Write the structure tokens for this entry.
Amino acid sequence: MNEAIKHSEIEVNGVRLHLAEQGEGPLVLLLHGFPESWYSWRHQFAPLAAAGYRVVAPDQRGYARSAQPAAVDAYTLLHLVGDVTALIRALGAERAVVVGHDWGAPVAWATAALRPDLVRGVAGLSVPPLPVGGPPPLTAARENWGEGFYQLYFQEPGRADAELAADVRTSLRRILCGIQPDGKPRAWIVPEGKKLLDTVPEPERLPAWLTEADLDAFEADYATHGERAFTGGLNWYRNLDRNAELLAAFAGVTVDVPALYVAGEQDLVNAMVPPEALAYLLGRLPRLHRHVRLPDTGHWTQQERPAEVNEALLDFLKSLD
């Protein structure tokens, strides 16, 4: 029988991070996305720990129970990769398997690309290995989807922050349930004159994978920062163009460690990354173990399909031993 999930705090790079941890053995880091926390991995702890791994899921910088640096430019991809690399060492490990979902996936891919000496293997859920460096991504987003594209909507300091923090539980419920209400992948667009939550309907009922108790847990995590509950996560988006500039020297770099990619067939990311683009991006993974596509699955991969995700992760981890 595995022990219960343990909670602790650790400081890396001058930032206090909250950690959830279970199990002993080779280190596996689980990196959440927006707007989530360590709790998005609740279904992965016990199976991975039972298989002989030390599973650690931080609240990443700016999120939930972790510290929230005030400066917007304290959330660049280099800061986030720096947190992961420092965390590996702070936990007493020489290397780790790094797994990321949504925004956690670019952090995982970039950590593996820039520090392969520290990464035994990397898995990305939902978001494929986007190139580091290159042209400013917000320019392309504006051309492809207009000013209402959610990543552009997030750029104005304070706007989305205030809308989402006004009622944390409602915001989390509507985003988790409403960005794909009909299961069809489409880009998240905020029409002119509308607010962010106007685009995500209130669900008639919660989906089978999300309970009121789950919302309790997420809400409690996000209550940590009050009116800035979502500001840390939003600041990640406010560094998209800065990331491209800072990482220009690494444009074209591949991810040369063993890799796994898992995504739902109904994920809204599919609307932003067409099949030909996905094929190109997966070409950046010369040691791709598997590409798993999950039917009837949207954006919240490991929450919606925990059994299938756990099976894929355990198969990948076994291939590394």
About this structure: Residues 261 and 291 are 5 Å apart (CA to CA). The radius of gyration is 18 Å. The longest strand covers residues 15-22. The mean pLDDT is 96.
